[in-house]
Design goal:
Low-confidence stretches: none
Oligomer: single chain
Bound molecules: tetrahydrodeoxyuridine
Strand order of the largest sheet: 2-1-3-4-5
Strand content: 15-25%
Order of helices and strands: HEEHEHEEHH
Distance between the termini: 34 Å
Largest sheet: 5 strands, mixed
Mean pLDDT: 97
Radius of gyration: 14 Å
Number of strands: 5
């Protein structure tokens, strides 16, 4: 799918963020190699540690529907510079190989990177046992 369409989808996903505590909405879109689209938004909880990031929600939605090969992910938030994913999300991304990651913000800023650049030397038990 075209980048601008993916950004639009990420913005729409971001609108569903449930963020009564941080008021910081994040949207994520995951495009699979098979061409399917999965979206995510962050979901917070009164017990703060139970909150979940937009990126992991999109990935878990895809994996739980049988999709594990990813082409790219788009992440968007209302940040000054492009949004940068947290360490936990980088680790979860790296479980599924190296795919393109487009970091963006609501002002139209974009940075194209990939999972290996976001998390060099990632821990991966599967690779360790090869
Ligand atoms: N958050 C995400 O959803 N993704 C990120 O990349 C950074 C942080 C969420 C977690 C929490 O709901 C809020 O943003 C503030 O940390």
């Amino acid at each position: 799918m075209e980048i601008n369409k993916l950004i639009e989808k990420a913005k729409m996903a971001r609108e569903n963020a449930y963020v009564p505590y941080s008021n910081f909405k994040v949207g994520a879109v995951l495009e699979t190699e098979s061409g399917k689209i999965f979206t995510g938004a962050n979901v917070e909880n009164s017990s703060f540690g139970l909150s979940m990031c937009a990126e992991r929600i999109a990935i878990f939605k895809a994996v739980s529907e049988g999709e594990t090969k990813f082409k790219r992910m788009i992440i968007i938030a209302d940040t000054k510079d492009v949004v940068s994913p947290c360490g936990a999300c980088r680790q979860v991304m790296s479980e599924f190989g190296n795919f393109e990651v487009i970091l963006s913000n609501m002002k139209g800023k974009m940075k194209v990177t990939d999972v290996e650049s976001l998390l060099p030397m990632a821990f991966n038990l599967k690779k360790d046992r090869e």
